[in-house]
Amino acid sequence: MDKNRVQVGQLALLYLLLVMGGKFLTLPSLLAGDVGHDSWLSVAFSFVWDGICLCFLLWAVKMNSDSHLDLSAILEKSVSKPVTKLLLIIFFVIFILRINVLLSSCYKMFSVTFDVSTNWIVYVLPIAALSFFAVAKGFNAIARMGQLLFGLILLAVVALFVSPLLEVEFGALKPLGEAGWDKILLTSYTRSFWFSDYIFIYFVLDGIKVKKTVFTPILISFAVGAFLCILLNAVFVALFGYLAPDFDMAMSKIGVFSAASTTNGRWDWLTLSIWLISVFIKVMVFIFCAYKCIEKFVGSNFVKFNWIAAGIILLTLSLPLFVSTEQLLGTVIKWGVIPFTLVQYVLPLLMPLCTKAAKRKTEVNNE
Amino acid sequence: MKISFDQFHKLWNGQDDFRLRELDCGIVLKAVCLDTMCDDAKVSAFVLQPIAYIGRADSIVEVEKKLAAGTGVRKPPNLFAAVEDFTNGYTLIFDQNDNCISVDTRTVIGRSIAEPPTSMVMRGPREGFVEDIKVNITLLRKRLKTPNLKIINLAVGKYTNTAVAVCYIEGIAEQRIVDDIVQRLQSVKTDGVLDSSYLARYLDVSKTFLFRRIGSTEKPDIAVGKMLEGRLAVIVDGSPMVLTVPYLFVEDMQSPGDYYENSAMTTLSRSLRFISVIASVLLPALYVCLQVYNYQIIPLRFLITVLNASEAIPFSPLTEMLLVLIVFDILREANLRMPSAVGISLSLVGAIVLGDAAVQAGLLGAPAVMIGALSGIGLFTMPDNTLILSLLRLLVTFIGGVMGLLGVIISTMTILVYLASMQDYKTPFLAPFAPDIPEDRQDAVAQIPVPNMKKRPRSIPNENSDRRG
Amino acid sequence: MSNLKRIGVVLLVIAAVALVAGSFKGSDVLDRAIILGIGIDAEENGGVLMTAEVVAPGNGTEQVGTFSKTVSVKGETVNVALQNVAEVTGKEASLGQCVVLVLGQKYVENVDFSDLTEYFINHHSFKESAVICCCEGSAKDLFNKGNALTQSMSLAIATALLDQAEKLSVTNNSLLQYARSQNELNCTGFLNRVAFVASDNTDSSLPEKELGYITYREMCVFRANKYITSLSEQDVKGMSLFLPDTYGETFVSFEDTVTRTVQVTNKDVKLKAGKDGIEAEINITVRYGRTDSEEVSGALTSKNDKEIPQKLLDDVTKQAKAIAEKYLAKQIEYNFDLLKFHEMYRRQEGTSVSLAERPMSEFPVKLTVTVTES
User: How far is CA C74 from CA B441, C20, C45, C51, C109, in A?
Assistant: First the structure.
């Protein structure tokens, strides 16, 4: 289990990368389409919910720090085996959908912005190969890589932000709540699929090495990530006005103004590609989680790399060949929001209780 | 196996350099030695003369006591030990009851201590290790005058029987790692060990072979410095390269002279090394993939230069760059083999004539040659130039040329995952960056002045973290 | 068996590389015609005449000199014209490096060019930050004339409008700002009008080419991509008095047979939208126009001794107020909103149809101008 151990500091950095990765692709334009220039408020509300759930989850992590139970152990001991399996299925579906949405947005970005035409399979295979390589090497390797690249990615994001920030007039966001507060709240619920990135923590519960505190580093990175996401959405709608819903690749459009000088070339694309690393890290983490889902569902520890599990995940990655992302978001996720809410927003609130119950049961068994 | 003179005689008789003398001093003694390994003067002074002047002796124990002039006199416990001593240049003395003593009469042949050509320094000690293990241990002892310097002697190799010494400082190096390494060395099954690099392969736990996982140095001051940080030094007889374990990636970027310079200067030069190494791996790949896929990124005026240069080139950008890199690698390889006088003119011919002629002839574009050369030179800023990076450069360039930015990103990430996952002897390869160990960053890229380094690096397991005592 | 396995692995790797190499298709820079600037003119039968300035590489050793050529093609739409550019040049047209979009005079005055802005704004590689402007005469003529100072007409226009214009008290538009102005609220916006001024040809390498400079102090005003009116140099000067980002206006005062020039170094503009109209407070700081650079200004500049007489300051105040008022009158006359008065009210009231349709005459402006010495 040693290769899946992760320090709290690494977890915090990884969480920040996950919050930033993926949210700057298609989400801003979708939100702008829903609530216009109030999209940033919608994002803010989502993050408020995320923050509350994250706190509960971290509480559970803290409780678990001396017993190192994993998710399925906690759930099986506190609720029951069938419920655990059901939850694992929901988790698996969420992860697979998220991976697919992330990858297809990236694919679009490569083909549209970067003008590289390729087919889905050849595009996905290297990324999947990288992810499975990382899964085989353990979560620790992913966490360490995140740590290595963190500074670079954050620098790239900041560099992308600076020029548009100077360009933008935040006054354009007024009046607040023009779309109607109920609609804004509803949007943050219907788009919740894009949020709650902490769900990956469920699957590394047993490997978290708690030294002093869990809350401070992770909550700091949550705050930074939330701030950057809200800021990006605000800048995006303020900068592009009525055009915002049409610009489906927020990050690639927002960078245009970084390269304001005429002959500089599109340096923003280089920073954009660096930022893309965080998307790939997110994909890697989610593939790791999906792999763990299968492992826990089967109920046996994969000592060696399991090719069957990898094959199943790889098969699900061909989903975008049959369903377009719009359809996926429009139908599957629209109906899936309710079960997803269960694991995204209800389960974290119950996690401290479950952990407590599971710990008590383990202690009883040991005696 | 019991020592017996007859057996010994059977083993060696017939060899040209086998010398046998029968002596009589009350009891009959037989002295044997290998002429090629012994110093005649020593044999005469430490063996023959004392025995000749003993007068009478009743037993070999008495003889041993009388050999007062010899510094190394001992009783080999078994035949193997006797053979080992014998082949090392000891003179063996047998009595009729097959009792045996061995006297050190080894001849000293070897280089004198000189400045190692691979790690020249501007400032700091100029002594380097030599091929003789005894001299090398002397060089360590000279710098570590403490009983805590422990040396474990081993012999490795069925035929070569090479002496190997594992040196560490008790109380600093972690005992478990010492035991692990000794056990690993003992379990080595091989015909012979000709150089320390043979053993480095066996000490590489994760068997990666791609990246250097074992450090090596030719300078005793460096070896002692590393031992003071909790590492072990493995000295192999016949090799001037002393191995240090465990090894971190940052050590690749640290030059011997770093500790003797101003720490600000060291910080600057280390950062330059990091930048140039990263650039030399990624620059050719970026140049190719930007040309083939994302030329919009290239600044307009440079793009026009590139267009001007490459319009007439018969190769695709990828082929062109691979060609430049391979030519550079060929030049470097040829340079290594050449005597230094020819080497200089070869590199001049290679760089100027080949490069310029290729550009003039329209075979290669000037920017490609420039970037190839820049990347080639960049790698040489690494004090311990690891050729693996030049292989990686080719690979990343190829992938970048085929898949564009996506390929560059993915191949870089794969390399990083691979590096980050390596952890030998409880030491993460990429420490102190991944995992991040803030205390250790004081001597990774940036370096704080030596008086302020109060702690030993945490990334190397140790038993006493305080440097001050 | 192990040999077979090894051969299998090698074959698999080769197949994978071939598959990957075959499936990634990029755009090799040598196969693209890199367009620096595009000029659009009206065609008589309704289409467009596109003039594109394309990078033309030299012969390998020559890396300086004229590096662009212009091509002019016709097409029913912009897209068709771009394809025709590809046909003519033999390379696929690339807009990623395009820095300027110039619309010809006849084109902007007679054609509704909404589809054109929409095309470029939604084009994936065309930069939204590119400069858009219109020109006097035809864009084709403009591109075919040489700039006496720099090599590329597109780069000359782009640098002039992006870097220099605001120092000459002329504001400019990126494609994004222009497109937004044509679709939001009052739907009015402007384009700078670039004009060519011929000069003597002093370049011996291009004896037959007409060389000269560009000027850009005039503007055309559009509503929903239709031409309304044009602003003279005076009007533009008046307009930019309301814009805090531009500076460098000069005022010339003739008095007592002495002619004096003062230059604006800093401007503090406060626009406040109230119930009964807009309160505009313009506070400009001036100094004698003597130095090379007027950029040193602002609160952190050290104080100078006063040297401009109050009488001159009063004269400047009068002049400034006059041109500002003249501009405001023009705004009301043609009902266009370049100072974003509608946007100011939207921020208070929210978006509504009634606000969007409110004419400019319902926004009376109470103007105060003060002039101080820096």
Answer: 64, 39, 11, 9, 19
- In this structure, the answer to whether residues B188 and B300 fall within a common structural domain is no
For chain C, residues classed under CATH 3.30.300.210 are: 236-373
Which residues in chain B touch residue A147, judged by CB atoms under 8 angstroms apart? Answer: 433-436
**Cβ-defined contact of C125 to A113 (cutoff 8 Å):** yes
Answer yes or no: do B403 and A7 touch at CB < 8 A.
no
Give the number of domains in chain A.
1
The reply to whether B361 touches chain C by the CB within 8 Å rule is no
Same domain as B310, residue B373: yes
CATH homologous superfamily for the domain C236-373: Nutrient germinant receptor protein C, domain 3 (3.30.300.210)
- Of B303, B420, B436, nearest to A265 by CB-CB distance is B303
Q: Is there a single domain that holds both residue B271 and residue B348? A: yes
Range of B39's domain? 5-104
* Dist CA B53 CA B46 (whole Å): 12
Q: Which of C181, C183, C201, C215 is nearest to C340 (CA)?
A: C181
> What is the total count of domains within chain B?
3
ipTM, two decimals: 0.92
Cα-to-chain-centroid distance, residue C61? 35
CB contact under 8 A, A115 and B294: yes
Which residue, A367, A339, A353, is CA-closest to A77? A353
Sign of CA dihedral C182, C185, C188, C191: negative
Which positions in chain A have a beta carbon within 8 angstroms of at least one beta carbon in chain C?
112-113, 115-119, 122, 125-126, 171-172, 174-175, 178, 239-243, 246, 253, 256-257, 259-263, 265-266
Give the integer Cα–Cα distance in Å for B392 and B412.
10
What pLDDT tens digit does each residue of chain C (374 aa) get?
578 888 988 888 888 888 877 777 777 787 888 888 999 998 888 888 999 998 877 654 544 445 778 899 998 888 999 999 989 888 888 888 888 999 999 998 888 888 899 999 888 888 888 889 999 989 998 888 877 666 688 888 888 888 888 778 788 888 888 998 888 888 888 999 999 888 877 666 666 777 888 888 899 999 888 898 999 988 998 998 898 888 888 888 887 777 888 888 888 889 888 888 889 999 988 888 766 555 555 566 666 667 788 888 888 899 999 999 999 999 899 988 888 888 888 888 888 888 888 888 888 889 999 988 87
Asked whether B196 and B133 are in contact (CB, 8 A), the reply is: no
B143 shares a domain with B239: yes
Average pLDDT over residues A227-239: 91
d(CA B420, CA B434): 7
The reply to whether B312 touches chain C by the CB within 8 Å rule is yes
Q: Which residues on chain C are in Cβ contact (under 8 Å) with B305? A: 63
Identify which of B299, B414, B436 has the shortest CB distance to residue A264: B299
**E-state strands within chain C:** 32-42, 48-55, 68-75, 92-94, 100-103, 131-135, 146-147, 188-198, 211-223, 226-231, 250-255, 258-274, 277-288, 365-373
The CATH number that applies at residue A143 is 1.20.1740.10
Q: Are residues B164 and B219 in the same domain?
A: yes
Pairing of strands C146-147, C188-198: unpaired
- For the segment B356-378, what is each residue's pLDDT rounded down to a tens digit? 888 888 888 888 888 988 888 88
A140 in contact with chain B, both atoms CB, cutoff 8 A: yes
Q: C interface mutation test: which of A181, A235, A262, A263 has the most C CBs within 10 A? A: A262
Closest approach of B360 to chain C, Cα-based (Å) = 9
Span B52-74, pLDDT tens digits: 887 777 788 888 887 767 777 88
**Which of B307, B308, B404 has the CB atom closest to C26's CB atom?**
B404
pLDDT tens for B160-191 read 888 999 999 999 999 999 999 999 999 999 99
Cβ distance of B402 and C67 shorter than 8 Å: no
Q: Does C301 touch chain A (CB under 8 A)?
A: no
Domain range for residue A57? 2-366
d(CA B57, CA B64) in angstroms, rounded, equals 10
Cβ contact, residue pair B304, C67, below 8 Å: yes
